[in-house]
Design brief:
The protein is an alpha/beta fold. Among the domains are: about 180 residues, Rossmann fold; about 60 residues. The strands form three sheets. It has a five-stranded parallel beta sheet with strand order 2-5-8-1-9. Strands 3-4 form a two-stranded antiparallel sheet. Helix 1 crosses helix 7 and helix 12 runs antiparallel to helix 13. The chain is elongated, with a radius of gyration of 27 Å. The N terminus is likely disordered.
């Protein structure tokens, strides 16, 4: 699948600091500098995660602290406590390593952190506080980790790199995956291998610092009156992802919107490719070892972008927001004006709905689509065919008593579905359709949560087509 990050033209600010291999993700990294929201870098050993973040602190002239979460003790972070002069509170004996004077903090190896320290780091990352005390000058909270043990599939294994607590992972706004050697082009490999700049402080004459300050000023202005394109995109994308059973928290919708505003300022304006990149880098699931379905993210982005830019967006948004399958079909038939848009809507439906609902829709409408009676292009017809064929190919005339397991006993779902059919008192073609669809669920091992309800939706779609002379 094409990586949308490859389409985003690099702004080439990191290479002038001696940081190479992050060009495609530079808008994300710079957006995190603008929002000052927490940033997490993920990657294999030696991919430059720590180097990037330490270099940024040097270029921005920040009072920086770098902690190894797997080794640090709490006293290293806050210093040694002692009573204040009036003995009414506690002060901390500070050292050059304590966090109190920091403007930026890098928590390295955060996935190897002991559970008790992870809880303490939670308030540092989320609230800029330690022991309930605010760290007044702290602007940036960064972290780095190897791929967690739940998400390793061959190659190096990082024993001890554990999934983050979802509550902690969800506090980071953006997630940047560092490129490994095989993902770099030849020029990037030569630049990474070149030792000439090793050990030098990152200094671009204050250019990056001035740019970040200018972007930050524009961001604070825009975020108080968030652009409609950003709010619409964030709302529709998060709704679509949750509907596709990729849980995205309400808090993350706000973090996504902030990141979109900042990325648009850095890149000189919103684009389709930029918003997709920000969405990809805003999903925290990688921190707890869960891989989200790329096709569902792509569908959520396409729906959100088209809705936000009003390119066939309004009716497509209504189509996906409609809860019933007959209602979706009515919107498609009444409002779709382009076969390409129809195909797009069908593709998004098939990846965002649960399997039984996606199959039910395709089962009901594919015959009409195959005869060219729906406003759907060839690609959409093919998608419907793939989804409908397993159900349409079931022999509905085989008696349910013949549906037995290898041991000669009835399928465990048989009785429940048979009762649903008996209670509905169906007749004629509707009965045969219901039997066929229910038998598909048995043979496909798909448990129908509400067999009677989904049968009504199938019949509702067929009725929609029949009333319009399309069936």
């Amino acid at each position: 699948m094409e990586n949308p990050s490859e389409k985003c033209a690099p702004t080439a600010r990191l290479p002038r600091l001696g940081v190479h291999g992050f060009d495609r993700l530079e808008p994300i990294i710079l957006a995190a500098l603008v929002t000052e929201d927490p940033l997490l870098l993920i990657g294999r050993s030696g991919t430059g995660k720590t180097y990037l973040l330490n270099t940024l602190s040097e270029a921005l002239g920040l009072e920086h602290r770098h902690y190894n979460a797997s080794l640090i003790s709490f006293d290293d972070l806050v210093g040694f406590p002692y009573p204040d002069d009036e003995r009414k509170g506690v002060r901390f004996l500070e050292t050059p390593a304590t966090v109190w004077g920091a403007e930026s903090v890098l928590v390295d190896e955060v996935s190897r952190c002991k559970p008790e320290h992870q809880n303490r780091l939670f308030s540092l990352i989320h609230e800029r506080r330690v022991q309930g005390i605010a760290i007044e000058g702290l602007r940036y909270r960064w972290a780095a980790m190897n791929p967690c043990s739940a998400d390793q599939d061959g190659g190096e294994a990082y024993a001890g790199s554990e999934p983050l607590d979802p509550a902690l992972g969800d506090r980071f706004a953006l997630f940047v995956t560092a490129a490994d050697w095989t993902e770099l082009d030849e020029n990037e490999r030569r630049l990474v291998a070149d030792p000439s700049g090793e050990g030098q402080l990152a200094d671009d004459g204050g250019r990056l610092r001035a740019e970040v300050e200018s972007w930050r000023e524009a961001f604070l202005t825009q975020v108080t009156n968030c652009p409609d394109i950003v709010l619409t995109y964030a709302t529709v994308a998060v709704t679509a992802l949750n509907k596709a059973e990729i849980r995205v928290s309400p808090r993350r919708s706000r973090l996504l919107a902030r990141s979109l505003v900042a990325a648009g300022i850095v890149a000189g304006g919103p684009t389709d490719e930029l918003f997709r990149l920000v969405l990809d880098c805003s999903l925290p699931h990688v921190t707890w070892g869960v891989r989200v379905r790329s096709e569902a993210v792509a569908a959520a982005h396409r729906l959100a972008w088209d809705t936000a830019t009003q390119v066939e967006g309004r009716w497509i948004h209504a189509f996906h927001g409609e809860p019933s399958l007959p209602g979706k079909l009515a919107i498609l038939l009444d409002e779709c004006r382009s076969p390409d848009a129809g195909s797009q809507a069908i593709a998004q439906l098939l990846v965002s709905e649960k399997k039984e609902r996606a199959t039910a829709f395709a089962f009901a409408v594919y015959p009409a689509a195959a005869m060219g009676k729906l406003p759907v292009g060839a690609e959409g017809v093919n998608d419907l065919a793939k989804a409908a064929t397993p159900a349409l190919s079931v022999d509905g005339k085989v008696t349910w008593q013949e549906r037995v397991s290898e041991k000669g006993t009835r399928h465990p779902e048989f009785s429940r579905l048979a009762r649903a059919l008996d209670a509905a008192k169906l007749k004629g073609g509707r009965l045969e359709r219901a039997r066929q669809f229910f038998q598909w669920s048995l043979t496909s091992k798909v448990v129908l949560e509400g067999p009677a309800a989904i049968e009504k939706e199938i019949d509702g779609c067929v009725e929609q087509l029949r009333k319009r002379g399309l069936a």
